[in-house]
Predict the structure.
Amino acid sequence: MIVMASMMAACAAPQAPRAKKDYVEFPAGNPRSILIPPVVNNTVNVDAPRYLLSTIPIPVAARGFYIFPVNLVRGMMNEEGLSDANMVHAADPTVLGALFGADAILYITIHSWETEYLLVTATTTVSFSYVLKSGRTGEELWSGSAKISESSEDGTTQSDDGDSSWLEELIGRTILAAIQTSAPDYMQLAREATGQALGGGDQVFPAGPYSGKYGKD
Amino acid sequence: MFCILAAGLLISCAPQHQQYVWGSYETELYGYYKNPDRLENLMKALEAAIARGENSAQKTGSAGGAKTSRVAPGLYAEYGYLLMTKNQDAKAKRYFEKEKLLWPESAVLMDKMIKVIDQDQSS
């Protein structure tokens, strides 16, 4: 029996409380595993989905879920004729759920990105949405959308309503990094996003079973 | 090199959140997506991350003998899959079994992969 002792240890240093939603729970059951199928990309930047798929496992796992190996999933889906992201997103989630044994499926769609130029400053805004569906019943467990902007002047990012969750920040910043092909910026934003995921902040959905926060936030 | 999780520790709560060792998996995975010739780099990154995850597990073994593995979710399976693409089925199967043992959530998928290998070998 594998004992995940480190997961159960509570954070020693108290976190400064941020504005939190009321205790939230999944509408039905608590998913232990999350599958991320191909991302629908409605932009011309072909790097964004690849970047997203290669960087999202770490923070989702840090949030306490088992995340299916993205490259294996990609290979298997291609073999099963499921390589078209739009088709996959429109299909019955329970089919994917049964194929992989996934409790939940996270569908991400990148809608658009634009860069505005003002003198020497460029501000890029990416717009995306995501839906988490049960792989068992097909019902929607969670969803959200956001616009995340990054300014070239000081490298800061912000969201459209100033209240985005760690997942939205992560997805948004990752896409921005791919668009701007700025590897050093990516490192910084990835650290921040991961830090947010680990340290708390507004939660997009409850922690998974491998997180020390399971059942507590 | 690109240990995102370790870097994240600098601004978040310390050791107890350092659950897994990812190594440079993320960077090499992206590199591989951009350029399939980088398959070997990805495999080496997985080997290194797995080795470190297994080695640090031994150090944190509790007094009762139970060990906590720090191999990240999916890494054994990813490595196994790449081995399959190189026709190293027997070795791939061992890694799928490791993934299944460490992560019960992977059982359905791992059983499928193991079955594919068994069928290939018996034909």
